Amino acid sequence: MVDENDSFIREVNEELRSDQLKSVWKRFGRLVIALAVLVVVGTVAHRGYVYWREDSASQSGDQFLAALKLSDEGKQDEAIAALAQLEKEGHGAYPVLARLRTATAQAEKGETQAAIDGFTAVGADTKVPSVLRDVARMRAGWLLIDAGTYEQVSAQVEVLTVPASSLRHSAREALGLAAYKAGDMAKARGWFTQITEDAEAPRNVTNRAQMMLDNIAATGKAP
Predict the structure, then answer these.
(1) Among candidates 156, 171, 168, which has minimal Cα distance to 198?
(2) What's the whole-number average pLDDT of the chain?
(3) What percent of the chain has pLDDT over 90?
(4) Mind listing the pLDDT tens digit for each residue in 184-220?
(5) What's the rounded Cα separation, in Å, for the pair 193 and 190?
(6) SS3 letters for the chain?
(7) Would you state the pLDDT for residue 77?
(8) Contact assessment for residue 67 and residue 86, using Cβ atoms and an 8 Å cutoff
(9) Dist. CA 121–CA 175, nearest whole Å
(10) Structural domain boundaries of the chain?
(11) pTM as predicted
């Protein structure tokens, strides 16, 4: 008798659960289906975007290499045109790399001011990764050693002379050369001395700095 009662209770509970499930499905079934569709569509869209981005970046890489080949062949005007298109239509890091390479090509053509302007623009663009901004500032600073003043070189690279900067040796050398060119031997000696006293400075940079210190000492103009 007890078994029959238990069986009867189970059947009733199952029926109630079935009725509840039907009620819930009737109320929320469409929402469940809609959510499932959204999940599927979202997954497909994400994978499609990843594929598109990778494929686009690959194409941009090919365009960048083609532009470099033109530059290596001495076809700077064609290279600059190809890089300009890549800057506008490229994907990933290639538009920024195109800007940097364009400035390099302009420098190689003798268009120094255009190159300085190009590097300066990249160096001031907060949307560009900091490491590339620093490289751009450094390139502008080196061009300004011959084409500008000490103050202009300083405005570009002095921020890179701090101990934490991986470009500090080149920045100090640029400032030393700019000061030497300007006739400020005391300032030049100060920058070159920072290089020779930095144990992490590359040997070739240290050797050049020491040569400059010897030249400055020979002039007798540094206090």
Answers:
(1) 168
(2) 80
(3) 52
(4) 999 999 999 999 999 999 999 999 999 999 999 988 7
(5) 5
(6) CHHHHHHHHHHHHHHHHHHHHHHHHHHHHHHHHHHHHHHHHHHHHHHHHHHHHHHHHHHHHHHHHHHHHHHHCCCHHHHHHHHHHHHHHCCCCHHHHHHHHHHHHHHHCCCHHHHHHHHHHHHHCCCCCHHHHHHHHHHHHHHHHHHCCHHHHHHHHHHHCCCCCCCHHHHHHHHHHHHHHHCCHHHHHHHHHHHHCCCCCCHHHHHHHHHHHHHHHHHCCCC
(7) 87
(8) yes
(9) 20
(10) 1-110, 127-223
(11) 0.70
Token couple for 120:
């300066």
Structure tokens at 53: 């981005």
Label residue 39 by pLDDT band (50, 70, 90).
low
Please report how many Cα atoms fall inside a 13 Å half-sphere around the Cα of residue 128, on the Cβ side. 22
The CATH code that applies to domain 127-223 is 1.25.40
